[in-house]
Amino acid sequence: MTSKIDIDVWVADLNFPGWMDRWHAQAAEFSRIHPEYRVNVRGMNFFSFPEDVAKEVAEGRRPALAEYYFYANQVARDAVAPDGSPLWTSVTKAVGDRTEFLGEPVMLDDLHPAFRDYYTVGGDMDSLPSVGTTSLLFANRELLEKAGVSELPRTWDDVTSVCEAVSRVQDGPSHAITWSNHGTFVQQALATQGGFLTDNRNGRDARATTMDLASKEMMTWVEWWNGLHKAGHYLYTGGYPDWAGTLQAYRDAHVAIRISSSNDVNYMAHAAKLGGFTMDVDVFPHNDNSPYVGNAVAGTSMWLGNNLDEDVQEGALAFLMWMHNPVNVAQRHKDNSFAPITKASYDLLKDEGWFEQHPYHALTYDHLLAFPASTGKSGIPLSEGAVFGDFAGVQDVMVHAMGDVLARGADPFDRFTQATGEAQKLLDAYNHWALNTPRKAADIPGSSHRVEFWNDVAPYTAQDMENVVPLNG
């Protein structure tokens, strides 16, 4: 009996109910289609994934494929094997001019531009996006109608006006709007204004070396957010970031609007059903006084091992193409509200009538497609976003700074100037590690997410799902 060729795939367990079951089912199905291969999927801790991978590699174990959260892109780019060679290789270079692998069609040209661009640096797509999100605005239609509001707000001034209208509703909600104190919304606010977090075009022209958390774009956002809070319109639940608390406020009609991740669509729809109201959805609002240049994206991507045996690489690339076929991508979208990241999957969903039945599900794909070439300062496409070390640590710094502004009345500029210094120390420590060889896997600065940090891909715990939005209810 001929032995099978193993393809080891390591992924961060996003904690969705059934998340790893689907991964294992996909591995089994691919192995059935291509019986000469055996795909072995291993779920690992989301918070410590980069560090855990590095430790395993240092001990002589390495996967053919690994799925990193986008905050860890710089860590993945800096990862090395014990011999000092890069741990990962470019997907586009490995694919070359091939059109198929083991009969599985190459689908790189079919990727949604926003998600393709995020993982592309210098014209080279290092990793293949696997799930994608952006930020959306969710509204309680009946509460807005009571306030005399007929259109969802598209700009910050619109939001302020809607909040003022909601505040005048007799026996209305205690607040008009809420969102989690999380760095993803800071990134969105900067992106829509064409702002950067770091130098060197957000770390894409060269390694990021300088943080700026007190830029004009940042302070414009912070001041507006704080103004809503001071006026009694914004509900600050007080947690870091308290996704569950803001979701519950929306479900219980304590607010008329909640801003959240696009992968929250299923949960938000169910929350509206439990609350007995109609959900309306629109895009993340932008600054009226700055040219609108589109929304940023988030998600995960698959990294291909460097120096793999030829037959292992062939199988790994075939598995990548297969997991991105229209049926698999469309099902991933249905299950978890992730954007359909290929045109073929979007077309399949459209042809099935999915978007007619769930029109808000098309919004992420359609809106991001409208701004594929939009540019910010220095001509950077904003969908590309920032790439730098200890991204999660900087997120932690930002949300704590904003918490001090909202809850303790800290001066916004002073507090975010202080935050810039804190973030700079984190970036300096990471860069010192990355540029100092040999690197010790256990010492990656900021490789583990902070305790208070919770991601925007799978923001709820299993208990949250039971207490706030019962699954499949």
TrEMBL record:
Compartments reported by the entry: Cell envelope
InterPro entries: Bact_solute-bd_prot1, SBP
Highest taxon above the source species: Bacteria
Cited PANTHER family: ARABINOSE-BINDING PROTEIN-RELATED, SN-GLYCEROL-3-PHOSPHATE-BINDING PERIPLASMIC PROTEIN UGPB
Name of the protein: Extracellular solute-binding protein
Keyword match Transport: yes
Major subcellular site: other
Pfam families per the UniProt record, alphabetical: SBP_bac_8
Keywords for the protein's UniProt record, in alphabetical order: Signal, Transport
Lineage: Bacteria, Bacillati, Actinomycetota, Actinomycetes, Pseudonocardiales
Record organism: Actinokineospora xionganensis
Family matches, as Gene3D superfamilies: Periplasmic binding protein-like II
Keyword Ribosomal protein: no
Annotated SUPFAM superfamilies: Periplasmic binding protein-like II (SSF53850)
Family in the record: Belongs to the bacterial solute-binding protein 1 family.
Cleaved signal peptide residues: none
